[in-house]
């Protein structure tokens, strides 16, 4: 990718100045760099020696869930592919070939495997697999802004406020899943985020509590192995276990007493000693041929890692290729316009989505894994003078597959310009209700805000999207 151009007097450029410059065309090795020590990195030995993990587990067990988890479970896991910046509906899943050139844009539409459904010519693999996908063309994004908060929380009240309190305390869908469902396999996190800019692309727990924040999966890889000086074979002996961890605690200058009889302590041991987390993040365990099939770029390797996390028992994964990557205002901005910026990205997205869905299907995981592809809003119906499209909140398109979603359908419709909803208006709350229902979480349940106030999981007159099963 070309280097970003500096426009210090452009407010939009200033807004993006602090974002990640990582591109999904970069080598996949960038995926596993070692950096910050966030929430789940307490799983490291210093955290175990200091009892932070057992305390965390105990707090989770003592916190009685407010929403019921007795619904039929269609989705054991959710993979939310976040297209940061807001992809153009008119150049992906809702083309208008009969519209004037300044509206229809530079791309042609192609037929798909389902008669009557056409999509962009640069997504032929999705076209061939359209029986696996449902397209929503009528998602209302008027509550959203350049932020992941609204749609990752699936709540129109969760908004960007520019006061370091974005989201209003409403939790993300991933955090709700982590609290009310937890992981599918003991010893695994319930919510993992795969993004190079957590601050810009991932929304967390809000007032639900820090214990339900996502694990920063990009910076966590490689940090779950046994430390030097602790041999797994010796850990079967409780006395030796106590001595080694006491020694670790001494070196870490931590003084909290370890109680080997406490089951939360044992769970913390098991989380590291079992090696489950370390194995899940180890892409080297995948055949080289499959790694190459996914692609060596960031999007491909994150998609493969998402599949491994599903296999390993993680309930909710949110992944993003790069911050603002789909913000195609025009050729004067970092990510370019529709022709120069979006066009080379679409084949990567097309290949990544279809490879992931096919792999899940072949492993028998697609029926229990909900795959969602969306951004924060759509793009304007009229092309800009610099061959791009501006932000557009009245409507956006998104994609869904797996977990009982009937493929080969289009839900909703826009007007002839692709800028307004003409049929089947849906909103963030409808998306949230659908996800929660599929996870077996009562979408009409509630969570408790600080201060004891019951708060609905889904806000307003929203409900599960019937067409998604």
UniProtKB/TrEMBL annotation:
Source taxon at top rank: Bacteria
Region (Disordered): 1-20, 146-170
Family annotation (InterPro entries): Alkaline_phosphatase_core_sf, DUF1501, TAT_signal
Composition skew (Polar residues), residue ranges: 1-12, 146-155
Protein name: DUF1501 domain-containing protein
């Amino acid at each position: 990718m070309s280097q970003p151009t500096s426009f210090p007097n452009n407010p939009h450029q200033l807004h993006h100045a602090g974002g990640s410059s990582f591109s999904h065309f970069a080598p996949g090795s960038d995926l596993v760099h070692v950096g910050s020590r966030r929430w789940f990195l307490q799983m490291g030995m210093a955290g175990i020696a200091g009892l932070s993990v057992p305390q965390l587990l105990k707090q989770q067990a003592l916190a009685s869930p407010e929403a019921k988890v007795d619904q039929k479970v269609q989705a054991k896991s959710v993979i939310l592919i976040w297209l940061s910046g807001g992809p153009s509906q008119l150049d992906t899943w809702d083309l208008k070939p009969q519209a004037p050139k300044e509206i229809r844009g530079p791309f042609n539409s192609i037929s798909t495997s389902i008669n009557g459904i056409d999509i962009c010519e640069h997504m032929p693999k999705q076209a061939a697999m359209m029986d696996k996908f449902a397209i929503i063309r009528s998602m209302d994004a008027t509550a959203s802004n350049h932020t992941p908060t609204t749609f990752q929380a699936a709540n129109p009240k969760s908004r960007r406020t520019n006061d370091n309190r974005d989201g209003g305390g409403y939790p993300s869908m991933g955090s709700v899943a982590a609290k009310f469902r937890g992981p599918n396999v003991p010893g695994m996190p319930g919510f993992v985020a795969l993004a190079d800019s957590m601050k810009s692309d991932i929304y967390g727990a809000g007032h639900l509590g820090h214990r339900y924040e996502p694990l920063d999966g990009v910076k966590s890889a490689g940090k779950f192995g046994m430390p030097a000086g602790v041999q797994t074979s010796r850990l079967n002996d409780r006395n030796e276990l106590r001595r080694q961890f006491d020694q670790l605690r001494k070196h870490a200058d931590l003084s909290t007493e370890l109680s080997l009889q406490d089951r939360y302590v044992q769970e913390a041991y098991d989380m590291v000693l079992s090696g489950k987390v370390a194995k899940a993040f180890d892409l080297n365990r995948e055949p080289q041929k499959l790694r190459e099939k996914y692609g060596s770029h960031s999007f491909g390797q994150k998609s493969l890692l998402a599949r491994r996390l599903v296999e390993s028992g993680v309930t909710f994964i949110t992944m993003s290729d790069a911050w603002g990557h789909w913000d195609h205002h025009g050729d004067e901005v970092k990510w370019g316009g529709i022709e120069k910026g979006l066009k080379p990205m679409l084949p990567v997205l097309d290949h990544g989505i279809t490879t992931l869905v096919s792999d899940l299907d072949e492993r028998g995981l697609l029926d229990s894994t909900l795959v969602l592809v969306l951004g924060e809003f759509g793009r304007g119906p009229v092309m800009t003078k610099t061959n791009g499209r501006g932000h557009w909140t009245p409507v956006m398109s998104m994609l869904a597959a797996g977990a009982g979603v009937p493929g080969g359908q289009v839900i909703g419709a826009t007007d002839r310009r692709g800028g307004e909803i003409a049929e089947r208006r849906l909103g963030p709350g409808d998306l949230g209700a659908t996800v929660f229902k599929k996870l077996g979480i009562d979408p009409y349940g509630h969570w408790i805000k600080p201060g004891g106030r019951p708060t609905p999981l889904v806000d307003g007159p929203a409900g599960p999207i019937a067409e998604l099963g």
